Amino acid sequence: MKKILILFLGFLFLLSCNRSSLQLSDEETIKLVFEEAEFSNESYEILRYLTEHFPKRLACYPQGGEAAKWTKSIMEQMFLDNVFLQEVDVMNWKRGEQEIGAIKSNGNAINVNVCALGRGIATEKAGIEAKVIEVNGTEGLWQLTRDQVQGKIVFFNKAMNPALENPFQAYSEVAGQRFIGPVLAAEYGAVGAVIRSLTTSIDEFPHTGTTQKVENDFTVPSVCIATKHANLLSNMLETNPDLTFYFKTNCKNLPDTVSYNAIGEITGSEYPNEYIIVGGHLDSWDNSPGAHDDGGGCMQAIEVLRLFKKIGYKPKRSIRAVMYMDEEISQGGGKVYAEQAKRNGEKHILAIESDRGVTIPLGFTIDASPEIINKIALYKKLFEPYSVNMFEKGYGGVDIEPLKEIGTPLLGLATDPTHYFDWHHCGNDTFDQINREEMQKGAATMAALIYLVDKYGL
Ligand SMILES: [Zn+2]
Questions:
Q1: What's the gap in Å between 344 CA and the centre of ligand 1?
Q2: What are the strands of the beta sheet with 114-116, ordered from one edge?
Q3: How far, in Å, from the CA of 290 to the mean position of ligand 1?
């Protein structure tokens, strides 16, 4: 009797397993994914730990590599089929001591919040002080003569346009002043460059980012300045054009160093050499805990694997969570990943990146052929219950971009961009700016699409 009971219970168990992993409709499986994501806080808590224990994890800093090793250990605890690190050579820029900046006018010095730009150079030990010439972006500088600029500090004060609906467009319109501003200023004979932070919020955080790397002779020391203090400097220049600006930077460009991509995989049951990858970049700026940019995107990638394990879905193809290293300075992690994939003959049928803030998911921007875009857009109906409606041509992501060379369709998770640049590259990108439900919904959105592509191919 006991034997029969055990057999019967075993049969019921098999029945329930089949129900959870094999016999559900696509609608039911996707519902299960969203429900499981909604009720879990595991990845959210892992993000809390990452931002608290590994803030300022610039790729070339020790905490960048430590964060990668820790992330590997987190994935090992999930009993994935394969977890490994991938060595990446990364540019080695060190900020050194905290920068200082001040507006000096009529015998008064007003301290302002400034921050060196990645790959920027140091001032001389005592810092530099000079008169200021304000310009409206790089185009403003083109209109000046060398005589007007010689010996001064160029103040690039073009603001991001808050009226544009897409803040990413507003960002790209003014990012040139940060990237090539210091080099242009040097060409005009300036001694330094101060760049308005790239954000629409008026705050006291300097928002950093990379600037073009050239030999010391062809650029000048530079800092970004908090928007609140950029406005102050601009206003003071109107009443006193002869005021001076002082700043001191202590950064160094050193020989390359080593860090790591962290990768976790559920190996496919039918096509193990076909890969679908999802990821973000693990490095952050060194003035930031990097919660939205991009610790959140990384933890969403891990969440995708966790969701599959939790609902008992066994993919046909191999699914990888890839946490890239060094998106912020030289994008080395993405390049190394693509090179290895090519060398190993791995067929990557889809790559998704989440690196636009882990806010409410809107859908996907797709960088692929029209045929592939149409195929993916056919799934739109299945996402309607979750208000995920965007399936359109667009950008994939910085880290997955190199996979284009091997023909991989690229998808960027599109999220509500309204506040992204309030957090971007500054000390305001903290864990308390993360909404757990929004982050989880983003992970579920990616998991649902991966499930469909895994099941039906592309
Ligand atoms: Zn990012």
A1: 27
A2: 108-112, 100-105, 244-248, 128-135, 153-156, 192-196, 222-225, 114-116
A3: 9
> What distance in angstroms lies between residue 186's CA and the mean position of ligand 1's atoms?
29
* Assigned fold of 23-91+255-456: Aminopeptidase (3.40.630)
Q: How far is the CA of 2 from the centre of ligand 1 (A)?
A: 59
Kindly give the distance from the C-alpha atom of residue 232 to the centroid of ligand 1, in angstroms, as a whole number.
29
**pTM of the full predicted structure?**
0.92
Compute, in angstroms, the gap from residue 441 CA to the centroid of ligand 1. Answer: 19
CB 279, CB 301: distance < 8 Å: yes
Q: At 7, is the pLDDT very low, low, confident or very high (cuts 50, 70, 90)?
A: very low
pLDDT at 214: 78
Q: What's the CA dihedral at 135, 136, 137, 142 to 10 degrees? A: -60
Whose tokens are 């002080």? That residue is 129
Q: What does the domain layout of the chain look like in residue ranges?
A: 23-91+255-456, 96-250
Q: Which two tokens stand for residue 360?
A: 């409410």
Which CATH architecture describes the domain 96-250? 3-Layer(bba) Sandwich (3.50)
